[in-house]
Design a protein that fits this description.
three-stranded parallel beta sheet, 287 residues, Rossmann fold, alpha/beta, binds guanine
């Protein structure tokens, strides 16, 4: 058996196209242009690539992009001051502070200083609480992208067994909330889970978000399951550098029913959902 490849790249292109159409309409009918501010502190090379891609795709969707690159030694007071100004700026509808932040900055404090209505990452405790209680929230972009691909695959997810491997605030926990909201039976597994292979084998939907290259082999996967690989791990292989997921793709593709490749699966959906969240924030701000 060979799994269907879930093509996140073309799915994301369709989402971006739909966003661009709505952005153009907002401009024509209401004279409003959505604006996304991205804040990067320090010079982490991977973060710089992400931020550049976000800026480019924001502009391509017809939105305004505001980039704030701050030195690694920026003080918490200066960062909070910038976020305060972005919160008050009516041209800014979405604010994203790229993580991880340098160690001397308190990420929770910084994220919770963002106006929840502009928190397009969905990381503010208000949005986390709204999502957990089934209210209208800003939903974190990577899990939202995963959910969109799963709904496209299955239609209804109701009653399916979902296992999320990884319990991060960015992916694992919100992914579990979204799957629960769609009436899956959800298990969150992690490094201390007893008999992780057996837990994974129960899954109709297996989401891997641990950041460990190739950790989940094909024989942990239930035949026919949908496998969503959130991992983006940079490794050296035969002297060349390449990206691999948390799932061992070569063995998993013979067992799974459908699988996201790395690259070209979940990754492109994250930025597409960020643009969609920025549009949503702009629409809500303008009634
Ligand atoms: N770093 C890795 N993923 C993310 C994300 O989704 N949002 C932010 N702000 N930082 C990240």
């Amino acid at each position: 058996m060979s799994a269907t490849l879930i093509d996140g790249k073309s799915f994301a292109a369709k989402v971006r196209e739909k966003v661009a159409v709505q952005v153009a309409r907002l401009k024509d009918e209401h004279g409003v242009t959505p604006g996304l501010a991205v804040v990067l502190v320090g010079e982490d090379p991977a973060s710089e690539v992400y931020v550049r891609n976000k800026g480019r795709q924001t502009l391509e969707a017809g939105m305004n992009s505001f980039e704030h690159k701050l030195p690694a030694e920026t003080t918490e007071a200066d960062l909070l001051d910038l976020i305060g100004r972005l919160n008050r700026d009516p041209a800014v509808h979405g604010i994203l502070v790229q993580l991880p932040l340098p160690d001397h900055l308190d990420s929770d404090l910084v994220i919770n200083s963002i106006d929840p209505a502009k928190d397009v990452d969905g990381f503010h405790v208000s949005n986390v609480g709204l999502l957990a209680t089934g209210q209208k929230a800003m939903v974190p972009c990577t899990p939202l992208g995963c959910l969109m691909m799963l709904r496209d695959l299955y239609g209804s997810l109701s009653g399916l067994d979902a296992v999320v491997v990884g319990r991060s605030n960015i992916v694992g926990k919100p992914m579990a909330q979204l799957l629960l909201r769609d009436s899956c039976t959800v298990t969150i597994a992690h490094s201390r889970t007893k008999d992780l292979p057996a837990v994974c084998r129960r899954a109709d939907i297996l989401v891997a978000a641990v950041g460990r290259p190739g950790m989940i082999p094909g024989d942990w996967i239930r035949p026919g399951a949908a496998v969503i690989d959130v991992g983006i791990n940079r490794i050296e292989h035969d002297g060349t550098r390449r990206l691999v997921g948390d799932v061992d793709f070569d063995s998993a593709r013979h067992v799974a029913g459908a699988i996201t490749p790395v690259p070209g699966g979940v990754g492109p959906m994250t930025i597409a959902c960020l643009l969609a969240n920025t549009l949503t924030a702009c629409c809500r701000a303008n009634g």
